[in-house]
Amino acid sequence: MRFRMFVAALGVSLLALTACGGSEDSEGDPSSPAATATADGQSTSAPDPTSTASTAASPTAANATAIVSGEGEAGQLRAAILARDPNIGFDPQCSADNPAGPCATGEWSSEALATGIAAVGITESEGGIMTYWGRTADGTWVYWFASQNVGGPPVLLPGDMIVCANGDGLNLRAEPSTSAAVVALIPDGTVIVGDRLVMTDPPSPGGSFEHPDGWYHITSPQEGWAYDRFLLDYNSAITSCVDTFWP
Length: 247
Prior knowledge:
Blueprint: H1 61-68, H2 72-84, E1 89-90, E2 103-104, H3 110-114, E3 117-124, E4 127-135, E5 141-147, E6 159-163, E7 170-173, E8 182-186, E9 191-201, E10 213-220, E11 224-227, E12 231-233
Parallel strand pairs: 1-2
Antiparallel strand pairs: 3-4, 4-5, 6-9, 6-12, 7-8, 9-10, 10-11
């Protein structure tokens, strides 16, 4: 999908362009968990606003507090965002036309949050950036990544995604873990369908692009779980494993 937004001066580092292959759960790297899987499929190791013109006033402390105090998934997500950046204000009328920098709408549909991924657009007078958050198995929301580029992981679910595992194929597992049984090996270039994400791994230290990782629940062509580092959003811009900033 396309995310064409100017990068805001929020201290978010530019994302490095990298190849889409990896090693956490692909088949070719001898050191990868998939490559060390036993005959019964067990692995012996694990990888460590919409814009709407408005003349309304800027977000105030009162409405920001009211929004943050909301209960449920959205309230937990807003709290996580503030924990990472206390300067962000929440207002439903926050947009590129009505920035009150930095701000976010602080609103998401329950259906969107149920997928385990939340898109959080941050805007201010100089521009904006789209950030993405993921949910862990215990319900905690964690910062995932930010980008203005195409060629990243699937963020609108359910949706199509293409396997990009450096030619080695991707293990589809029974559970979101490299220690779970392998139920299928999916060849590179295969388009599969996922409906939700669960974050499992903290950011890996080192490199220019550190982010946590997780697993997509796959519904087609076969049910199982696939590691996010080897999947790209399949859309009109990305139809093969090229021109990607991920992972």
